[in-house]
Amino acid sequence: MKLECHKDKLGVALSLAERATSKNPTLPILSYILLEAKNNKLLIKATNLDIGIEIEVWAKVEKEGIIAVKGSVLMGFLNNSDRDNNISMDSSSGNLILKTKDGEATVKGVPYDDFPEIPKISGATGMVIDSGILVNGIRSVSYSASPSHIKPELASVVIYSDGKQIIFVSTDSFRLAEKKVSAGLTREIPQTIVPIKNAVELAKVAEELGGHNMKIFLSKNQIAIDGDGIYFVSRVIDGSFPDYKQIIPKEWKTEAVVLKEDFLRALRTATVFSDSFNQTTISVLPGKKKMTLKTKNTDVGEGDLAIQAAISGESIDINFNHRYLSDCLPSIVSDSVSLSFSGTGKAAMIRGVSDSSFSYIVMPMNR
Known about the structure:
alpha+beta, eight-stranded antiparallel barrel, 25 strands, 6 helices, 3 domains
């Protein structure tokens, strides 16, 4: 192969592809990136068998060819080379020779015969959506997925449609986040359970599409997106996501509305004095029109911070993991947040005021 292409665009493509590689002792080829030059394009492919990506980069191809190289080595050269915008590649004797205006490098190639095919979803018709929908939806809920893979459906993000909306949900059984995004769908999206690591990569690739329209493909075993020269595919989990709507309380005994910045500042203060369990006691005081956050650590001291609140209902004292409370706040776009409590020892809900698109359920801690 012999070609010339834009260095910056190549760097972005390699960065995405490198995230799809893996260190697999039994299949070392998975730690390599496949480069294929044809039809005035450089095709960049990578897979770890769980996800796969194929990216097209425009190139002036003088000679077609294919080679597998370490993406990290190629990126290292690009990131530290001169400011010349173009780079030339030439394969010779199984190696890849890179040249910029003021630099040259030789990257060792390996036999590519065992490189897996990037799977394509056959028989499926893509549905056109805005790439920003996936970015917004996944990032609004991904933090509440379980870090443990004992129950794969909990270490995931579930995606499905409800009318014209796409709904994203994740839970680790202690908390649950739900985000609804209007999408103007032309047909239904069945419940699709995407492993959390794959969902994060899916959002990363969708973000690179910069809000452009893309096609989303779904099958029993895979989910894929395709747009602007980028194709990304991930396996999905064959299982059932919990019927999470059953755990949402039907009525609330107490509601406190506070400014998001005040609440966030109080939670940050809580981290200074919290114990190893991150326990924070929230007290809602209707008579004083305030909500307090108390933390205590026998080795450090204790803190007690009050914030103004608009309160309805009865007073309550309840313990939470303060990290669980703060995790959801970046997903809330409103300046004020509503905290609804169904009673001591029962789940609470956090939402943005006048924003029904995001809901967060969190269970309290035992003392």
